[in-house]
UniProtKB/TrEMBL annotation:
InterPro entries: FSCA_dom_sf (IPR034904), MIP18-like (IPR002744), Mrp-like_CS (IPR000808), Mrp/NBP35_ATP-bd (IPR019591), NUBPL-like (IPR044304), P-loop_NTPase (IPR027417), YlxH/NBP35 (IPR033756). Residues 88-116 are annotated as: Disordered. Gene3D superfamilies: P-loop containing nucleotide triphosphate hydrolases. Residues 11-80 form the MIP18 family-like domain. Keywords: ATP-binding, Hydrolase, Iron, Iron-sulfur, Metal-binding, Nucleotide-binding. It holds the Pfam family ParA. This is Iron-sulfur cluster carrier protein. ATP binds at G133, K134, G135, G136, V137, G138, K139, S140. It comes from the Bacteria. In the C-terminal section; belongs to the Mrp/NBP35 ATP-binding proteins family.
Amino acid sequence: MAQTSSPLHHDDIALVLDSVTDARTGHSLLALGKLEGFRLEEGKLSVALAVPKEKAALLSPLCDEAAMRLKALPDVQDATIILTAHRPAAPAQPGAARPPAGGAGHRPFGGPPADPNAPVLPGVKAVIAVASGKGGVGKSTTATNLAIGLAQEGLKVGLMDADIHGPSLHRMLGTAGKPEVHNGRLQPIPVWGLHAVSIGMLVEEKQAMIWRGPMVMGAITQFLTDVDWGELDVLVVDMPPGTGDAQLSLMQKVPLAGAIIVSTPQDIALIDARRGVSMFEKMKVPVLGLVENMSYFCCPNCGHNTELFGHGGARKEADAMGVPFLGEVPLLATIRASSDEGNPIVASDPDSEAAQAFRRIARTTADALRRQTTAQ
């Protein structure tokens, strides 16, 4: 179905179709069919959805519900979903490549699918994940300053924002504008000595990313396969908090050289940090270590250190779990201010106490990666 000039985007339609689910199977309408196109003329929206012929009757109620939700989109007064025949896939031949798992059929950014036999990140020597068991512990701030610190150690570094629902790296890096596309491949934005991509660079900042698991995994797959990362010593991936679809999808796509877990000192955060360590260990991913963020507050007036959230909890936890402790990062207003302003502290004030803390973590991480390379 041809698309006329319209304020709607393919992703807008896909999000609505993905929000309507079959109560029996839990599958969304988008997962059960294939969005082939849409047309918006004089307020009337027509959406073409390819589905297996034998399922058309069962999907009709879902289509009615989706049509009602589509009416809430801008400039849409009425909506209709047209079901088209979708041939079932032919049986796989012996030795034929299977489509990759983890929502690879979902391509929220559009474009032709990547060759399933093409290598993933062929020019990247190592991929490390920066993760946390819960939100609000400064994971993205740590990932940003760690990546820049690794670049300052002489490594070629990429930074990928996999926190689809809460992207913030574009703001912390101070980037403006969207990445360019060359020959169908997204070009990372060069900034602060590294190359970065975030979904925050591709969508409006106020747009809510109301995506279910398959869409999230599809976005991560596209960041891995559709971005021209080039030759890198290390790709740092800022993971969303928790232990869900995004983490599993990444580990299914690429072998991780290691994971760094960020936590604050208090017990409630360390409980979630343990879950993060356990997840990576079960997936046979080396845990490079724990970082204790917001370790202490240094008063800017008198210089006195106050342990607002306790102190040393992450070090003790690392010892108990038998993983390295990478270091402490203080709770300082300058870290918050530099992140809000798009001037990461490691780059904007490299001699500060905070920057030196991140530099020590980056140096330890770089040494661990070099040892891995030597061992190989």
